[in-house]
Amino acid sequence: MKLRDIEIPAEFRIYFERDDGIVKYPDPLLRKVAKPVQRITPEIHELIDYMLVAMKRANGVGLAAPQVGVPLRLIIIAPEDQAPRVVLNPQVLERAGEQTGLEGCLSIPQLFGYVKRPKHIVLRGINRHGKPIRLTLEGDPARIAMHEVDHLDGVLFIDRAVPESLYWEHPRRENEEENL
Ligand code: NI
């Protein structure tokens, strides 16, 4: 996987300076490979609760622990109109089909681009109570899960996006954009 660097246009830097608890590009934390969660401690529950709040406040549809500065393999998948799902140590067991869709990222605010992802995936992991889970995801939830699992390996959507499709856009309205 070839990692790509982007230049943040001067007029978009204000969004990167916003103090919303989300680690922003080009913080090196976003490029580190995260470690598996070994034990579900009270600190892990606190981390999950913190992430749920930060994600909601930022109007995100997904979040990975490295995005709040914690290099652990823990993601949240929260497609619109669905209850957020927390997956610890996620592993993609199966992938099938193909979809190309628009993505953004809370760590790279106001940048968007088209990314090719599998259409269906089977994700395995454990939930916040330590129970093994297996999720069959299709469409948007599959896209979000793949985006978040990438974060655990230090991979960002800019690395996978069709380069010519990347564009910067100011928020048009509050709560309008979906961010992963
Ligand atoms: Ni992201």
Tell me what you see in this structure.
With 180 residues, this protein is α+β, with helices and mostly antiparallel strands. It has a single domain, classed as Peptide Deformylase (Alpha-Beta Complex). Helix content is 21%, strand content 26%. The chain contains 4 helices and 8 strands, in the order ααβββββββααβ. The protein has helices at 13-17, 42-57, 140-152, 157-160; strands spanning 62-64, 74-77, 85-96, 99-103, 111-117, 120-126, 132-138, 167-168. The strands form 2 sheets. It has a 5-stranded antiparallel beta sheet with strand order 1-2-3-6-7, with helices on both faces. Strands 4-5-8 form a 3-stranded antiparallel beta sheet. A hairpin with a 7-residue loop joins β2 and β3. The chain is globular. The model has no long low-confidence stretch (mean pLDDT 95). Nickel (II) ion (NI) is lined by residues 105-107, 147, 151, 180. Nickel (II) ion binds at residues 105-107, 147, 151, 180.
What labels would you give this structure?
180 residues, 21% helix, Peptide Deformylase, alpha+beta, binds nickel (II) ion, three-stranded antiparallel β-sheet, five-stranded antiparallel β-sheet, globular
Total of domains:
1
Which hetero ligands occur in this complex? nickel (II) ion
Q: Give the helix proportion (percent range).
A: 10-25%
In the CATH scheme, the class would be: Alpha Beta
Distance between the termini: 20 Å
Summarize the structure.
With 180 residues, the chain is of the alpha+beta class.
Secondary structure blueprint with pairings:
Elements lengths: L12 H5 L24 H16 L4 E3 L9 E4 L7 E12 L2 E5 L7 E7 L2 E7 L5 E7 L1 H13 L4 H4 L6 E2 L12
Antiparallel strand pairs: 1-2, 2-3, 3-6, 4-5, 5-8, 6-7
